[in-house]
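Case study 2.
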Amino acid sequence: MDLGIAGKWALVCGASKGLGFGCAQALVREGVNVLIVARGAEALEAAVEKLIAEPSRPADTAVQHLALDITTAEGRAKVFEKRAEFDIVVTNAGGPPPGDFRDWDREAWIKAVDANMLTPIELIKATVDGMAARGYGRVINITSSSVKAPIDVLGLSNGARSGLTGFVAGVARTTKLARANVTINNLLPGVFDTDRVRGMAQGTSQKTGQPVEAVLEARRANIPARRFGTTEEFGATCAFLCSQHASYITGQNILMDGGAYPGTY
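Prediction:
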């Protein structure tokens, strides 16, 4: 299927690895020019090399990068100094650490809200009016399955990401954007095979004495699909939501969790 987005420009955040990289990879395969950003310069440069070497990338597809912290005003300013306009924006920031809410002070909450709610809102504010003026725009926010099924130890993430979800539900439905072919949707990943998931498994292993693979297998056993998601299939879904074929989908929360969520709605 031709997604109809070749030649467009995308900003992909947190794209040095994991789900962000999966989204950048899928977009590059469709001929989308990308500016990828992440904090770690070394990992980001390695990601650029992989994207440039991608066999399915059309030869004239640009891959640019900036090592910065997108959750800061300074980082965002550098992005828009590099390129003022984007047709596609994929927001993504690492989730806050797990823990007991009794241990989180105001600073911890502000940091979580800043990264996982306010930063996406700032990126939306900076780009959607230009998208509307050009008649095409796609914003994809990578959030979490915990928005639908909260996880007790991820209270910081539950709260901050739910705030973003509520904001998107309103702004995506404004006539000014929807009628101008600008859509805003959220992608809610369950458990995917990423460094973050393996890092959390290692933490559990250290606390319980179980082997890391045993911890991971126990998580797989709780997923009806009996496996973790892959970054490639996550990226493919992101690319479809960015496509011309998804223009009638906006303000939605697309859950990708292998059937783990037990609810009807």
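The longest strand covers residues 182-189.
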